[in-house]
Specification:
With about 90 residues, this protein is mainly alpha-helical. Helix content is about 60%, strand content about 0%.
Length: about 90
């Protein structure tokens, strides 16, 4: 998830950030590590959101392990497709 997709609408939004964070982003932009402070903020937010969604998925999967019907369906599906990997010549 890098730069905002061309079709996605950008919205100007004001946020209060610590001066040290802005100074660090200016430093990174000056070193060409990020294209700009704005882009650095955008990339940081995109990374944060992706990480939080991944954590939410992990929590949901952990909860699903307590659902016996879900686990039975998962194991049945696993067993139904396990032979596919054993095809002759290891080719499809």
């Amino acid at each position: 998830m890098h730069a905002t997709a061309a079709k996605e609408t950008s919205i100007k939004y004001t946020a209060v950030l610590p001066k040290t964070c802005i100074d660090e982003l200016k430093y990174l932009a000056g070193k060409k590590i990020v294209p700009s402070v704005s882009q650095g903020i955008r990339l940081a937010i995109e990374s944060f959101v992706a990480f939080q969604k991944q954590q939410e998925y992990v929590r949901a999967m952990e909860e699903a392990t307590n659902d016996n019907a879900f686990m039975l369906r998962t194991m049945d599906t696993h067993n139904d497709f396990s032979a596919i990997d054993d095809e002759e010549g290891n080719t499809w």
